[in-house]
Write a structure and sequence with these properties.
The chain has 94 residues and is mostly helical. Helices cover 48% and strands 0% of the residues. The protein is elongated. It is found in: Membrane.
Length: 94
């Protein structure tokens, strides 16, 4: 009885015999893909080096500072609500 490894070898031989015309094209296209992948990886490394050198990278988030909130007057104590401040006659009740 044939095992899995023998069946895999037989299948590989059948595929190689039937696809002998396409193997050079397959090798050529895989070589092109490898070159493209290598060039893209090199370009990404160059971009990351530029970002480390202090230059802005495209798509980098920019954050702006917001103005501080205006200072609020402290709330009066429970018993003083609605009454003017006796020490400061020009003040209004809150």
């Amino acid at each position: 009885m044939l095992g899995i490894s023998e069946l895999a070898v037989i299948l590989l031989v059948i595929v190689a015999v039937l696809a002998v015309k396409r193997l050079p094209d397959l090798a050529r296209s895989s070589g092109k893909a490898a070159r493209i992948l290598k060039s893209e990886a090199k370009a990404m490394k160059e971009e990351s080096r530029q970002g480390v050198d202090g230059q802005d990278r495209p798509g980098q988030a920019v954050y702006y500072a917001t103005e501080p909130l205006p200072e609020q007057q402290p709330r009066p104590a429970d018993g003083q609500q609605g009454r003017p401040d006796p020490q400061n006659p020009g003040s209004r009740p809150i």
